[in-house]
Amino acid sequence: MDGEGRQCRQMSVPPPRCLAIRRGGRAMGKCAGLVAVGMGMFLTASPALAAPAFTAEAIHAPPGQSPETGRVFISEQGSRFEFERKGRPVIQIMLPGQAVMRLLFPEDKTYVEMTQLPQSKIAHPKTPCPLPEVAQCEQTAVETLNGRSVEVWRITFNQMPGDLAAGKKSIASGPIQIWWDAERKVAIREQYPDGGLSTTTLRGRVDHQGRSVEHWQVTLTRPDGETVQMSRWYDPELQTDVREERPNGTVREFRNIRLVAPDPAWFAVPAGYRRVDSPVRRNGRPAHPPGAPSVPTPQPGEAYLLDDADAPAVR
Predict the structure, then answer these.
(1) pTM higher than 0.85
(2) From start to end residue, where is composition biased (Acidic residues) (predicted)?
(3) Is residue 312 domain-resident?
(4) Which residue range forms the structural domain that includes residue 116?
(5) Each residue of 214-234: b (16+ CB within 10 Å) or e?
(6) Three-state secondary structure call for residue 163
(7) How far apart are CA 205 and CA 218, in angstroms?
(8) pLDDT attached to residue 281
(9) How far is CA 265 from CA 94, 100, 189, 305, in A?
(10) DSSP structure class, residue 246
C-alpha cells in the first residue's frame, strides 16, 4: 500500500472507507476540496429512506482543545449543515436525489453549486462497494459470522489515471475482503492484502441523549500486530451514527437531537444570493470563489465519515 493508504492506517481509519472517499473526491476533479468542507470537523449524516427528519447540535471535541459546534438538519430530501470556518458562517446543503451539493456563504450572500458524488451510496450503502470509477467489487459468498448471516465481498481498487501518468502503484497491493452485515449495512470484518485486519463488534444497547442506540467497537490490527480501537454509537431509528470516539481521544457527536417535521426551506437558496464558480489553481486544487471566505483544503482523512464516512461517517 502506498503513502495514501498508509495515511489511512495512521489515522486508524479502515482503508476501504478511507480510500474510497479520498479517491471519490479526486474523481470529482476541481471541486474535491470544497466538497469536504466541514466534513472532518463534525459527525455527519446523510438522508436515509424511512428515517425520521431531525435536527441536532454537532460537536467536534479534539483532546485538549475547545470544542467546535455546528447544527445539522436531516430529512429524506437531504441534509443541511451550519458551521463556522475561521469565524465566518458556512452552510453546506447536500441533495442526493438531485446529485447536487451547495456551499452558502451568508456574509457575502454567495453560493457554490456543484455536481455531487452519490453520497447516499457511501453513507447508506446497500453493499460495501465504492463507486465503479474507484474500485471493482464482487460478492463471493454468504457466511455466518458471530451468529449473523453476512455477505463476503472482494474489492480491488482501480489505478487512477493521474497515478498511471506519474508511475504510481495502486493504493492496495491486492484485493480487500469484506464481511458485510447487509441488515445493518456495516462491515463486520475487513481483511487487507498486507495482513492488516479490521473487526467491528456490537457491544450492546446504551443511552445517548435519551435515545437507545447501539454501541459498536472497531478494532484495527496493523500488519505488525499493533492494534487501535475506536467506538461508534449508531441510532437504528435515525439510521446514522450519533457519536464517535477516535483512538486519539477526539469525540464527534450529535447532541440535543429533536425529531421534527421536514422543512423544504432547509435546502433552498435564500433570495438575494449570487451563484459563483469555483475556479482551479495551477496545482489542480480548487481556488476559492470570488467573495467566498477562505476555507483551507481539508487534510487527509477529514472526510472520513462520508464513508464512515467517515462518512459522514458521517457514516
Answers:
(1) no
(2) 305-315
(3) no
(4) 3-306
(5) bbbebebbbeeeeebebebbb
(6) helix
(7) 16
(8) 43
(9) 13, 16, 41, 25
(10) -
Report whether pLDDT(189) > 90: yes
Q: State the pairing for strand pair 197-208/110-115.
A: unpaired
Torsion 142-172-125-115 (CA) sign: negative
The grid coordinates of residue 72 equal 445539522
Say how many domains are in the chain: 1
For residue 201, give the C-alpha cell.
463488534
Lowest mean per-residue pLDDT among 43-52, 150-159, 178-187: 43-52
The rounded distance, in Å, linking the Cα atoms of 209 and 219 is 25
Integer Cα distance of 49 and 62 in angstroms = 32
- Whether 274 is in a domain gets the answer yes
Compute the C-alpha angle 40/272/45, nearest 5°: 25
Is 26 domain-assigned? yes
* Residue 117 vs residues 28, 36, 76, 315: alpha-carbon distances, Å: 7, 11, 17, 15
Pairing of strands 68-74, 54-61: antiparallel
Q: How many angstroms separate the Cα of 175 from the Cα of each of 25, 64, 197, 261?
A: 21, 39, 13, 44
